[in-house]
Amino acid sequence: MKKKYLFIIPIIIIVLIILIIVNNPKDEEYYVLKDDKIKSITSLLGERKLTRKTKKKYNDTIIKTYKYKKIKNPSIDLSKYIIYLENESNFMTTKEYNLNNEKGTLQLSRYSTEKSYIILIDISYNKNSYTIKITRGKGKITPLNNS
């Protein structure tokens, strides 16, 4: 009877290790949606704790979501990332935001490499985390009216 348990214990340990590896999301250097590549926040700023990563597809629309937690100062991270996106990746702000607020949302957009498609980056943040949702789908961009 003891030999049977000795055989089962290593199998249980192996299964637990596999579950831990599978459930521990890995971040990417680029957020890739078909032919569109966007430098990830971690490739720009360094390692951050990615706790959840999802991908959904609805017809021609692709949505990828990245949840980062235990962030020391989200407003500094996001400020640097927004500057990069606007200056180096041709994104424009399409929703007003104030990073001085403890929590909030913002949106940036640009045209996709494929005609008639756009890329939206929706970011929600609070005092120690942020979620980056990237959507690629058909549409037009309405720039933020700064007047």
> What name does CATH use for the topology?
TATA-Binding Protein
For the CA atoms, what is the radius of gyration? 20 Å
Strand order of the largest sheet: 3-4-8-7-6-5
Helix/strand/pairing class, anyone? alpha+beta
Strand content: 35-45%
CATH architecture type:
2-Layer Sandwich
> Which sequence of SSEs, written as H and E, runs from N to C?
HEEHEEHEEEE
State the gist of this model.
The chain has 147 residues and is of the alpha+beta class. 28% of the residues lie in helices and 39% in strands.
Task: Give a description of the structure.
There is one protein chain. With 147 residues, this protein is of the alpha+beta class. The chain has one domain (27-138): TATA-Binding Protein, CATH 3.30.310. 28% of the residues lie in helices and 39% in strands. The chain has 3 helices and 8 strands. It has helices spanning 2-22, 41-45, 74-88, and strands at 30-33, 36-39, 49-58, 61-69, 92-95, 104-111, 117-125, 129-138. It has a 6-stranded antiparallel β-sheet with strand order 3-4-8-7-6-5, with helices on one face. A hairpin with a 2-residue loop joins strand 1 (30-33) and strand 2 (36-39). It is globular, with a radius of gyration of 20 Å. The model has no long low-confidence stretch (mean pLDDT 86).
